[in-house]
Structures are given as structure tokens and as C-alpha cells.
Amino acid sequence: ELMARDDINKKTKMIKPSIFKFETDIIWYIAFQVFLLHAIGIYGLLTFNYWQNLMTTIWIIAMHIISNIGVSGGAHRLWSHKSYKAKLPLRILLLICFSAGVQVMLINLLFYVYYIYKYISLVFRKIKPSDNDFVNFLTTGEGYHNFHHVFPWDYRSSEKGNNRFNYTTFFIDICAKFGQAYDLKYPSENLIKSIVLNKGDGTHSILSEVPMPEPD
């Protein structure tokens, strides 16, 4: 355990100069692409006549959910974290859904996620819970990142499972019922409680279920 902590401290020191002091070179053409896409998106959200173009509105919502499931259920949970296994038809479907999101190439995204979880995603006591239902709603289930960074291999990406707009988990569960998804990984309740007790900041609701020691 001490060796693991030393390794984490070394990696943190290695990362801090380039990230927290903003010494990393800005890739301007990517920064411009990100800015432009968000600017166009915000303009569209503010000016589009949703009720007059109802079918287009339904199509937008459907594509938002479909592409997010491709990113969340495919690129993120399946290919990056290997939190479950999928048969070929489901893998093809997820790849198509991911492509609809018009993100970076899949291989690049997998590299980014690997780098983040190998060198940056460190969970400490001082980190406050950052579960966000609004983000969870927008991203179809990616709004519980404190839990996810502790258990990145949990296919639910949340200890709350299907609750609170976690449509990606719901989709994976349906695929599992049809035999397309299998070997779904998730931590046991005892493991979650152990992490909360030993590594948590004392605010988790699960602590109310743990009996307090009796005074001598």
C-alpha cells in the first residue's frame, strides 16, 4: 500500500507542472474546433423554433440519446473500461451510435481515457461528492463521476444503477436480457461500504446504515 501511495505521489508531482500551472501547449486548431462547435450549438439552441419544427425536434432529441449511448455505453464503458462484454451485433451498433456523435476518432478517445485514468484520476478524502443529476440527464448516465473514478470498471457508472436518467445502463441491461451484453461488472455492496468507510469524506448516505461503536 505504501508503494502504491508513493507511486501516486510521484505521478501527481509529474503531472502538476504541466496541468495545474497551465504549461501545456494549446493545440489551437482543436481549441478553435471545440469553440466553434459549442458556439454553433448554443446559437442553435437559442434560435431554433422547437414547436414549429416538432419532427426535427424529436429527431434532435433521439440523435442526442443515440449518440450519447454510443459514447457512454460504447467508447467509454465497453472499449475504454471493459466493464462488460458485447457480441458483434451490439459492438457494430455502438460503433454506429458513437460515429453519430461526431467526436474524435475512437482510437484517440480510448487513448485519452486511458491516460486520464492512469495518471490523473486520483481520488482523495478532500474531494467532495460531485454527483450531478443535470449532467447525468444530459449525458444519459455520466453524471456520477466520483463513484465512477473509484470504480471505473462498473458498467453502471454509478452505484445508483438505472436511477436518475442513467439511460445507458438501462440500454445495457436490455441488451443483456437479449444476450448481446454479458459479463456485466459491478462492485459488491460490501466493497462499496468498505471504500466509503476507509476512503470517504464522511458525507456518504451509506454511513447512516453503519452502526456506531458503543462507548466503553
UniProtKB/TrEMBL annotation:
It comes from Trachymyrmex cornetzi. The keyword Metal-binding applies. Its cofactor is Fe(2+). The histidine box domains are involved in binding the catalytic metal ions. The keyword tRNA processing does not apply. PANTHER family: ACYL-COA DESATURASE, DESATURASE 1, ISOFORM A-RELATED. Belongs to the fatty acid desaturase type 1 family. GO terms for biological process: unsaturated fatty acid biosynthetic process. This is Acyl-CoA Delta(11) desaturase. Its main location: membrane. GO terms for molecular function: iron ion binding; stearoyl-CoA 9-desaturase activity. GO terms for cellular component: endoplasmic reticulum membrane. The chain crosses the membrane at residues 26-46, 58-80, 92-117. It is found in: Membrane. InterPro entries: Acyl-CoA_DS, FADS-1_CS. It comes from the Eukaryota. It is a multi-pass membrane protein. Keywords: Fatty acid biosynthesis, Fatty acid metabolism, Iron, Lipid biosynthesis, Lipid metabolism, Membrane, Metal-binding, Oxidoreductase, Transmembrane, Transmembrane helix.
